Automatic annotation (TrEMBL):
PANTHER family: 1,2-PHENYLACETYL-COA EPOXIDASE, SUBUNIT E, NADH OXIDOREDUCTASE HCR. Gene3D superfamilies: Nucleotide-binding domain of ferredoxin-NADP reductase (FNR) module, Translation factors. Residues 1-97 form the FAD-binding FR-type domain. This is FAD-binding FR-type domain-containing protein. Its cofactor is FAD. SUPFAM superfamilies: Ferredoxin reductase-like, C-terminal NADP-linked domain, Riboflavin synthase domain-like. Keywords: 2Fe-2S, FAD, Flavoprotein, Iron, Iron-sulfur, Metal-binding, Oxidoreductase. InterPro entries: FAD-bd_FR_type, FNR_nucleotide-bd, MRET, OxRdtase_FAD/NAD-bd, Riboflavin_synthase-like_b-brl.
Length: 224
C-alpha cells in the first residue's frame, strides 16, 4: 500500500497548550472546508484532525496538546519540522451550505478549525450572507487566532465575532458561556447554525435551539 505524505514545514506555539502546524504536500488535492485528514502517526496510531485552512499545497492545523488526556496529541505536537507523516485523504460531511442564509457559528477551543476554514473560504469567495462566530475559552491567556479574526472582520463587513471567557472577567473580555448567548433576541437574525464542540455541549446547544423553535434541518454540527 502506497501512502500519501505530508511534510511539516512550520510549527508555532499559539498558547501554552495550542499549536499551529503547517504541512506541505507534494500532491495536488483539495479539502472542502469542514473536512478532516487522518494522520498516520509514527506510532502507527491513526488520528483525525480538521483542516483549519488550505492554500494551494499547504495545510494548516490547530491542535491542542493535552498532557494527561489524548496522549496522541503530544506525539503530534512533538513532531519535528521537515519530518514526513502519512495521511489518509480528507473526508466528512460537515460542510457549509451554499445558500445565502445568514449563518451563526458556535465553537470552543480547537474545535475552531473547521468553522474557521468554512468562514474564511466563504469570505474569500465574496459570499454576501451575514456570518457571526461566537466562542469561548477559559482565560485570556488561552486566546489564539484573534488577530486573524480581527483581520477578517476588518476586510469583510458581513463577518463579525464575539469572544467570551468562562473562568474570568477582564477589562477587555466578558465572562460568559456561549450557550448563554443562545436566546431569541440574539439569534433571530440567523437562519443556519453551525456547531463544532464536544458531544455533550453539542447536545446542549441543539437542545437550546430546539426550544427556540429552530428548524432542525438548519442546524449543522460536528462533535468529538
Amino acid at each position: 500500500m502506497v501512502l500519501n505524505k505530508l511534510t511539516l514545514s512550520k510549527i508555532t506555539k499559539l498558547t501554552h497548550d495550542v499549536y499551529e502546524l503547517i504541512f506541505a504536500s507534494a500532491d495536488d488535492f483539495n479539502v472542502i472546508p469542514g473536512q478532516f485528514v487522518t494522520f498516520i502517526l509514527p506510532s502507527w496510531l491513526r488520528r483525525a484532525y480538521s483542516v483549519a485552512y488550505q492554500k494551494w499545497k499547504t495545510f494548516e492545523f490547530i491542535i491542542k496538546r493535552l498532557e494527561n488526556w489524548r496522549w496522541w496529541s503530544i506525539e503530534v505536537c512533538d513532531l519535528e519540522v521537515w519530518c514526513e507523516i502519512s495521511y489518509i485523504w480528507p473526508v466528512w460531511n460537515f460542510l457549509l451550505s451554499d445558500s445565502e442564509a445568514s449563518k451563526l457559528f458556535i465553537w470552543t477551543w480547537t474545535w475552531f478549525a473547521p468553522l474557521y476554514f468554512q468562514i474564511k473560504a466563504a469570505l474569500e469567495k465574496w459570499s454576501k450572507e451575514k456570518m457571526r462566530l461566537i466562542f469561548w475559552i477559559r482565560r485570556e491567556e488561552d486566546i489564539f487566532y484573534e488577530n486573524e479574526l480581527k483581520k477578517l472582520k476588518n476586510d469583510y463587513t458581513n463577518f463579525d465575532y464575539l469572544l467570551f471567557l468562562s473562568r474570568e472577567d477582564t477589562f477587555k473580555y466578558r465572562k460568559w458561556y456561549v450557550t448563554d448567548f443562545l436566546r431569541s433576541e440574539n439569534i433571530f437574525n440567523y437562519h443556519e447554525y453551525y456547531i463544532c464542540w464536544s458531544a455533550q455541549m453539542v447536545v446542549d446547544a441543539r437542545s437550546r435551539l430546539d426550544k427556540l423553535w429552530i428548524n432542525k434541518e438548519k442546524i449543522f454540527f460536528e462533535q468529538y
